[in-house]
Write a structure and sequence with these properties.
Elements (H helix, E strand, L loop, with lengths): L7 E4 L3 H12 L4 E4 L7 H4 L16 H9 L13 H13 L8 E2 L3 E7 L15 E7 L2 E7 L1 E4 L16 E7 L4 E6 L15 E3 L2
Parallel strand pairs: 1-2, 1-7, 2-3
Antiparallel strand pairs: 4-5, 5-6, 8-9, 8-10
Helix pairs in contact: 1-4
C-alpha cells in the first residue's frame, strides 16, 4: 500500500483530535482516531463540572461546525461559557457520531509507540518517504497500524507538568519598604496564595 493511500492517524478523541478528523475528511483523506478512553472526550469528562474561560465561539472548530450544521446540529449561544460536560455532550459526541467520522473512531485503543516503518534512529535515508508505524494496544491486544501522517492530539491530562508536583515551601519576602509579608511559594518561587501584586520583592534567607 502506498503512503498517500494510508490513513492519517489522530491520537486522541478530544476537541483537537475530533476537529483534526473533520479537517482530514474535508481534504478527502481518511482519518483513524485512536482514543485510549472508553468514550470520546475522556480527558474533558474528568473536569466536566468546570466552566471554561472561553465562550462557545472559541471552543468549536468552524469546519467541524459546518459538518455538524449540515446534519441539523444547532450551535450553542456563541457568547455563553460552557462546562466541560456541555462541551462533550453538545459538541464532541455529535461530532464523533457523524457518518464521516464515526466509522474511523477506535475507542479503548492506546498508542504505545510511533516510528517510521523499517527505519530506526540510526537510519535517516529516505525517512520522509516511509510510512509511520504505530504500535497499538486495544481490546484484542497489540497490533500495528500504518499511517501516512500522525497528529498527536492526546493532550497533557495524563502527563501533567512538573509544577503540579512541586512541594509548597513557606518563605518570607519584603515588599518595598513595608513590613515583611509572609507568603507561600512553590519550588519555582511562585506565590500560591493568590496575591496579585507583590510589588518589588526580594527573598529573605
Amino acid at each position: 500500500m502506498s503512503v498517500p493511500s494510508l490513513p492519517v492517524a489522530i491520537i486522541g478523541a478530544g476537541p483537537v483530535g475530533l476537529a483534526a478528523a473533520a479537517h482530514v475528511v474535508s481534504r478527502s483523506l481518511t482519518p483513524v482516531v485512536l482514543e485510549a478512553g472508553a468514550r470520546v472526550g475522556d480527558g474533558v469528562r474528568r473536569w466536566g463540572h468546570v466552566r471554561v474561560f472561553s465562550p462557545w465561539s472559541l471552543n468549536v472548530d468552524p469546519l467541524a461546525a459546518d459538518l455538524l450544521t449540515r446534519r441539523g446540529w444547532t450551535m450553542p449561544a456563541a457568547d455563553e461559557y460552557p462546562t466541560g460536560r456541555e462541551i462533550v455532550e453538545q459538541y464532541l459526541e455529535p461530532l464523533a457520531a457523524l457518518p464521516e467520522i464515526a466509522p474511523h473512531l477506535r475507542l479503548r485503543t492506546r498508542v504505545l509507540t510511533v516510528a517510521r516503518q523499517h527505519l530506526d534512529r540510526m537510519k535517516d535515508g529516505r525517512r520522509e518517504q516511509a510510512p509511520f508505524l504505530l504500535r497499538l494496544l486495544g481490546p484484542d491486544g497489540e497490533e500495528d497500524l500504518l499511517a501516512s501522517a500522525v497528529i498527536d492530539a492526546s493532550g497533557t491530562i495524563d502527563s501533567p507538568g512538573p509544577l503540579l508536583e512541586c512541594t509548597r515551601i513557606p518563605t518570607e519576602v519584603v515588599v518595598d519598604d513595608m513590613a515583611a509579608l509572609e507568603v507561600e511559594v512553590d519550588a519555582f518561587g511562585h506565590d500560591v496564595r493568590g496575591n496579585e501584586d507583590l510589588g518589588k520583592e526580594r527573598r529573605v534567607e
